[in-house]
Amino acid sequence: MKLNYRIVIFVAAIAFGLFFSAPSLLQTEKGAKITLGLDLQGGLHMLLGVKTEVATHSRIKSLAASIKHFADREDILLDSLKIHDESVTFVLLDSDDTPAISEFLKALEGLVINVDGENYALSLTPEAVEKTKKQAIEQAIETIRNRLNQFGLAEPTVARQGEEKILVELPGIKTQEEEQRARELISRAAKLELLAVDEDRAMRVYNMNELSAAKYGDVILDDVSKVGVKHLLREIPILDGSMLTDAQVAFDQNNRPVINFALNAEGSQIFGDFTGANVGKRMAIVLDSKVYSDPVINERIGGGHVQVSGNYTLAEAQDLAIALRSGALLAPIYMMEKRSVGPSLGADSIKASMMALLGGFLLVIIFMVFYYKGAGIIANIALIANLFIILAVMALFGATLTLPGMAGIVLTVGMAVDANVIISERIRELLYQGKGIHKAIEEGYANAMSAILDANITTLIAAVVLYVYGTGAIKGFAVTISIGILASMLTAILGTHGIYQMLEGRIHKTKNIALWFGIKVDK
Amino acid sequence: MEFFKYTHTYKFMGKSKFALIMSVLLVLGSYALLATKGLNYGVDFAGGTIVQVKYEQAAPINEMRTRLKNNDVFDGASITEFGSPEEVIIRLKTSSQNVTVDVGDITRTALVGTGNFEIRRVDIVGPKVGNELREKGVMSMLLAMLGILIYVAFRFEWRFAVASIVALVHDVSIAMGAISLVGLDVNLDVLAALLTILGYSLNDTIIVFDRIREGITGSKSTNLGEVIDESVTRTLSRTTLTSLTTFFVVLTLFMFGGEIIHSFAFTLLVGVVVGTYSSIFVASPILLWFGFDIKGYRNKLAEKAKRVAEKDRIRAQYEEGTL
Predict the structure, then answer these.
(1) What is the Cα–Cα distance from A324 to A246, expressed in whole angstroms?
(2) Residues 295..334 of A with a Cβ closer than 8 Å to B: which?
(3) pLDDT of residue A15
(4) How big is the A-B interface in CB pairs under 8 Å?
(5) Testing the interface with A: which of B87, B241, B273, B279 to mutate, by most A Cβ within 10 A?
(6) Domains and CATH numbers, chain A
């Protein structure tokens, strides 16, 4: 027995494999572990789209709101201020106000202003539309992330995918009910608006439809708890949730959960002005197009504190407060792709693929010993080392093990023996040609090398393409295959060669080729 | 233990005509199947919805059907057993975009009172994502082949590259024909399996080609057919052995891997068999038919060796200071 550099590297690789795969295999507390994919541990994977056109529309709406607020403050008389799909129009009644209104409009960014006499038409520039859409996506990502962080689930992932998709991954969701609650929280627009009640026409609301309401610049909204109750409200909001600074769950005198929220300085100002000017009238608190309450304004309300009551449970109120706190979604989101796996299915998949892995592994190992005898045992050592190294590398790089990834490992087992089969066949061939043991081993490795390299590199090419073009779980398959191929070059080529070199003296001594290589050579 | 003796050379190329007829028939048959029966695209590529439900006892599948049919969402749904009598899979061609309430939630409420059950899986794939996945799938297949073609042409010779690609197309076509024949749902995992077949079959072909390349430069014979027979025979043990071990492994996956990995394993199973066959009976004869010129190739190699030797000689002289 003698040491050589190959065996030293091989032993080091085995030590590396054992050391870094131990945390994953033994589930120790410390150390980097392999993360299981959502398909194995259970969880929710979603690809969400953003309806960005809604964001541009609400930008138009808030433009109208700020024009109205400005005109009211400066006592400028406007007629038929209207919100269209992509523009705002109004008529200036007194041309003396032209300088004031144009100065105000000029200060606003990203607007195309068309003036025809006293008729004004405002729309967004294409750049502003683009920017609004982009912001809507970014804001959606930020908002969803905030909400999930406050929801208290372990390791949520929220990331942008491509131009306008949002990837959300929630491992550790246990039940479908829990999953639905998370989805509700994420998708909730949480758009808070304060709208004035149209007191002049409120009595006639049940005789009106959307269209006739729109004629007066009104909207008809449902009540959140009283079925069938409708409210007629001014379309242009007094203020919206963008001026909100905080939302907390509290309890009212009847010990029912309510939400208290606070407004920023600008919001408090607007709110104070409005309530001061409209004492005796009603104001509706609207969340996601549902009227939560419509209290009568008794006096000017300063300080910017508003309370929203509604018939919700404590959990609902808490989720609502989270949603309000983390901001509204400028644009609604929709489902493009969803994959949810229950934890028990994940456990079943692990069990089944483990069984397949162990079964296949045992079959190969027994077969190799049977066919190659000593050389088979040497190949098996490399195979087992290979398995540990794959696990270790995956743990070190924080790679995710998916179900196809498991299949990838099973497949690598089949392919990793290939290198040793090629080498053993070459050695046998040389032995048949009457070469000595030393020569047969060295030349066998040299002859086998080009075939093994070419074969591995082409498989690697396919794996890299899979990784680049694959999605989710398939990427996991490409990862394990690639690591497996690289590891097998180390174990099957370098490692086994080292073992042969170390044992060469002993092979010579026994002279038993049948025992070491499984063939009989006639002398 | 040995499967094949090295002393005997098997005459593979003599039988390559039979192989050709068989391959052409199989490939044409596969295309006919693909054209008439077609592939059964699953939710990943066609878009749609899958809900997997598991009961603690045998699933009351008829009651489930009547209950679900009450809701418009389940119009045209197929409700079938999945792997065991306890598990049921509901397939829909449609996909809803609603984040808050999805088909899983609707199923859960609709089935309340039919026994103790658990919704184990809900997959929803929108049409846009499905199309994207399909485009990416085809793209990955083509790119992988292109990469391989370039590599083999660079490492061997263009005829080898074309031969290996023909073998690949042959294997993938037959595998897809088999998928169509048994009516497997084609999802992402089947695509992964097809790509694995690409890699695997190529592996096999490369090993044989490597031997042929060695035979071309080393053998005494200048008859390409003889060289190929000799080389294929030399690699026969290896081919059989590796194919067998891989086959065993995939077979255990197929038998014990569970319902989810079933299509993946089936595709691989077909691929291993066809891939092994094609490296011997498809890829190698193509070299013959292309009229690969042994003498020309040897001359080219000899010239290349001469050029390298010349270069070395000049460098040696230069380093000695004689130039």
Answers:
(1) 8
(2) 333-334
(3) 94
(4) 241
(5) B241
(6) 5-41+342-517 (1.20.1640.10), 191-322 (3.30.1360.200)
**CA-based nearest residue to A261, from A315, A329, A323, A182:** A323
CB A224 within 8 A of CB A290: yes
Q: Which helix (H) or strand (E) holds A161?
A: strand A157-161
Instruction: Using an 8 Å CB-CB cutoff, list chain B residues near A186.
Output: 99
Pull the structure tokens for residue B241. 């052995």
Q: Strand locations in chain B, DSSP E? A: 40-41, 48-55, 78-82, 84-92, 117-125, 185-186
Average pLDDT over residues B67-87: 86
B48-125 is classed CATH 3.30.70.3400: yes
Smallest Cβ–Cβ distance between A519 and the set B2, B140, B253 belongs to: B2
Return the top range by mean pLDDT from A331-340, A347-356, B210-219.
A331-340
CA of A126, closest CA in chain B: separation in Å? 25
- Render the burial of B168-203: b for 16+ CB within 10 Å, e for the rest: bebbbbbbbbbbbeeebbbbbbbbbbbbbbbbbbbb
- Which residues on chain A are in Cβ contact (under 8 Å) with B192? 404, 466, 470, 474, 477
With beta carbons under 8 A apart, name residues in chain A contacting B129. 47, 336-337
Domain boundaries, chain B: 13-41+129-292, 48-125
> What is the percentage of chain A residues whose pLDDT exceeds 70?
98
Q: Does domain B13-41+129-292 have CATH number 3.40.50.2300?
A: no
Structural tokens at position A308 = 């929203």
In this prediction, residue B22 has a pLDDT band, given cuts at 50, 70 and 90, of very high
pLDDT band at residue B182 using 50, 70 and 90 as cut-offs: very high
Render pLDDT for A156-211 as a digit per residue (tens, 0 to 9). Answer: 888 888 878 899 998 878 788 888 888 888 888 778 888 888 888 888 888 888 88
CB pair distance less than 8 Å for A336 and B129: yes
Mean pLDDT, chain A, integer: 84
Residue B321, min C-alpha distance to chain A (Å): 35
How far separated are the first and last CA of chain B, in Å rounded?
59
